[in-house]
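hiii, so i know i said id send this last week but things got crazy w the move. better late than never?? heres the sequnce for the chain we talked about at the cafe, plus the structure i predicted for it. fair warning i was half asleep when i ran it
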Amino acid sequence: MSKNIFQASKEFPFHISIGVVLTNNEGLICCHYYKKSDLPIESEGKSDLYLLMRETLQLAETIEEAVARGLQEEFGATGQLQSYIGSITSKFPLRVSRVQVEKTTLYFHAQMIDFDPTSRDQDEVESKSAIQWLEPKILHALFLEQGRKYERSDLDESKIIENYIQYVKN
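okay and structure toks below
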């Protein structure tokens, strides 16, 4: 298998991910929720953590394929891609080498078609999260608070929720 050029490395500290704001018919947004005690290593356990779906783009994978794969692996969901709603570029240290990584996540809105959380990929760290459906304004406030606590721009997805509220919901 070829090296994934979208995955950050010590030699090339640049990373591309695809993120999704998955909504249901009630207008709620699907997100991961980790209790402080169950957090992934990168979060450093400062507080509970909320995250949207985010997947590293794989070599030769289209954006549509990454969205479908991510929704299935992380939430056990399928969705209809609706629109591109912005990006977040952030910097943080690569766990292994402490090299600063520049990560760009491209975010899309998808409307849920099907949802079966029991079909999540159990080998993925995201399968350890609780799945929550939250009002956009509540999730926005949680992301703002989380960004302040962690001081990591990749953990503050409030800008994407703002874009969703401004351009999609209204």
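btw The CA atoms of residues 27 and 135 lie 7 Å apart. thought thatd interest u
miss u guys!!
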